[in-house]
């Protein structure tokens, strides 16, 4: 089911994000939003988390992210406009929801240089990615950069929040272009490690990331962006320490420092190949003072401020 976006609201001392975001029904006659830098899509789903035996609540993530993002100021390096296309609400019909999300993301990606998808559990990433692929010329090389404590390469009889990147890598034969940063070694089995190796994925665990200098991290990222026609950036908020991001399906005991995650996001946004960003696993039911929602919103704002559109 598609749920239309509501008007964004907030303080009138702008400009703030709520001043620049229009919903589809606010577009003028014949205006399809083309030329607007950012399209926003929500995926209000926690069915994949439930199937993966996690704690539900991520279906409320898109609304919480909008609320947190709407109050952030738009500065000189921020976008001047965005269009919100509302939410896909799949309920238990996750497979149908993926198809609907793919269609909506594809439409957004044809209109806007950058599409931001608000999750939802990490099952969001599969539908998002399929939509981006559908909007690109056939044969485009698409990389995936996943900032995550988990590989999300599980074998399962049905899609879950633990399967999206195995689905993507197999369906599009892109395992060598899958990069996952922030893996928590004790929270991933040897089977998952072996799957990543068999696919040819590039992996850096949380402890390995902590040893890299900012210059080394950026050099590594640039080496992964080379040769890509488009990049899908997926940010799972459970990669952050639980003190920073308590409102997630699976809080991290250690995690990756927020400063490092922000650096990765900004570098990806400035790469000139980023076309899709999703922010997932926000679970407002377990958040504290909106802390996790605010972090997710800040990462979106960081990406939009650093963004360099493809040529």
TrEMBL record:
<keyword id="KW-0479">Metal-binding</keyword>
<feature type="binding site">
    <location>
        <position position="236"/>
    </location>
    <ligand>
        <name>Mn(2+) 1</name>
    </ligand>
</feature>
<feature type="region of interest" description="Disordered">
    <location>
        <begin position="1"/>
        <end position="39"/>
    </location>
</feature>
<dbReference type="Pfam" id="PF00491">
    <property type="entry name" value="Arginase"/>
</dbReference>
<feature type="binding site">
    <location>
        <position position="122"/>
    </location>
    <ligand>
        <name>Mn(2+) 1</name>
    </ligand>
</feature>
<keyword id="KW-0464">Manganese</keyword>
<feature type="binding site">
    <location>
        <position position="238"/>
    </location>
    <ligand>
        <name>Mn(2+) 1</name>
    </ligand>
</feature>
<dbReference type="GO" id="GO:0033389">
    <property type="term" value="P:putrescine biosynthetic process from arginine, via agmatine"/>
</dbReference>
<feature type="binding site">
    <location>
        <position position="150"/>
    </location>
    <ligand>
        <name>Mn(2+) 1</name>
    </ligand>
</feature>
<comment type="function">
    <text>Catalyzes the conversion of N-formimidoyl-L-glutamate to L-glutamate and formamide.</text>
</comment>
<comment type="pathway">
    <text>Amino-acid degradation; L-histidine degradation into L-glutamate; L-glutamate from N-formimidoyl-L-glutamate (hydrolase route): step 1/1.</text>
</comment>
<comment type="similarity">
    <text>Belongs to the arginase family.</text>
</comment>
<feature type="binding site">
    <location>
        <position position="148"/>
    </location>
    <ligand>
        <name>Mn(2+) 2</name>
    </ligand>
</feature>
<keyword id="KW-0369">Histidine metabolism</keyword>
<feature type="binding site">
    <location>
        <position position="236"/>
    </location>
    <ligand>
        <name>Mn(2+) 2</name>
    </ligand>
</feature>
<dbReference type="InterPro" id="IPR005923">
    <property type="entry name" value="HutG"/>
</dbReference>
<feature type="binding site">
    <location>
        <position position="150"/>
    </location>
    <ligand>
        <name>Mn(2+) 2</name>
    </ligand>
</feature>
<feature type="binding site">
    <location>
        <position position="238"/>
    </location>
    <ligand>
        <name>Mn(2+) 2</name>
    </ligand>
</feature>
<keyword id="KW-0378">Hydrolase</keyword>
<dbReference type="InterPro" id="IPR023696">
    <property type="entry name" value="Ureohydrolase_dom_sf"/>
</dbReference>
<dbReference type="GO" id="GO:0050415">
    <property type="term" value="F:formimidoylglutamase activity"/>
</dbReference>
<dbReference type="GO" id="GO:0030145">
    <property type="term" value="F:manganese ion binding"/>
</dbReference>
<dbReference type="GO" id="GO:0008783">
    <property type="term" value="F:agmatinase activity"/>
</dbReference>
<feature type="compositionally biased region" description="Basic and acidic residues">
    <location>
        <begin position="13"/>
        <end position="25"/>
    </location>
</feature>
<feature type="binding site">
    <location>
        <position position="148"/>
    </location>
    <ligand>
        <name>Mn(2+) 1</name>
    </ligand>
</feature>
<dbReference type="InterPro" id="IPR006035">
    <property type="entry name" value="Ureohydrolase"/>
</dbReference>
<feature type="binding site">
    <location>
        <position position="152"/>
    </location>
    <ligand>
        <name>Mn(2+) 1</name>
    </ligand>
</feature>
<protein>
    <recommendedName>
        <fullName>Formimidoylglutamase</fullName>
        <ecNumber>3.5.3.8</ecNumber>
    </recommendedName>
</protein>
<dbReference type="GO" id="GO:0019556">
    <property type="term" value="P:L-histidine catabolic process to glutamate and formamide"/>
</dbReference>
<dbReference type="InterPro" id="IPR020855">
    <property type="entry name" value="Ureohydrolase_Mn_BS"/>
</dbReference>
